[in-house]
Amino acid sequence: MARTDPAEGRRERRKAATRRALADAALRLFLEHGYDGVTVTQIADAADVSIATLFKHVPDGKQALIFDDGSERREALLAAVRDRPPGRSALDALHDRLAARGPFARELPPDLRRRRDLIMGTPELAGYQRRLWLRAEAPLAEALAADAGRAEPAPADRALARYVLETPELAAGAPDPRAALREIFDRLESGWAAPDRPA
């Protein structure tokens, strides 16, 4: 049995605490002063760390401060495909996963609603969030291929992964984001046949 180094555990806890302090300070300052009204120096000061420490923990800079590294969302999407109930399509499972997040969630606590509105209303933050989604493209294509019994993703698996990952940005700005999300997934599920035209 492998033994855990206590010093390594402490280092990881300290790193996580510093990252959390930076994220909390950034979010609070962004909400108070707007994204453009806050500097990385102000965030570092509010978290009581140096600028060097801030960039050590968040090398992507200010726009990345209120996000995780994207691994949580990637793992959640892969689990949606792998662990879905029998008889449920991969696309339905992915839809359900996305529908529970951010702009699509029916009920968000006020703090998460403010965070969501900040991200959606700030082009730099929305763009960074999109890049985080797209980092999951290759693993999601692999999961879709494996689900279909293929050893390697085909171009269609990669295309479907890309479409799914672009959906949050496309649907979030619609007047009814949940309906837009459902419409996109319905089209992906049924194929791109031309819709019935009015007589």
TrEMBL record:
Signal peptide: none
Pfam family for this entry, one: TetR_N
GO molecular function, one term: transcription cis-regulatory region binding
Record keywords, A-Z: DNA-binding, Transcription, Transcription regulation
Feature: DNA-binding region: 39-58
Segments forming domain HTH tetR-type: 16-76
SUPFAM superfamilies associated with the record: Homeodomain-like
Protein name as it appears in the record: TetR family transcriptional regulator
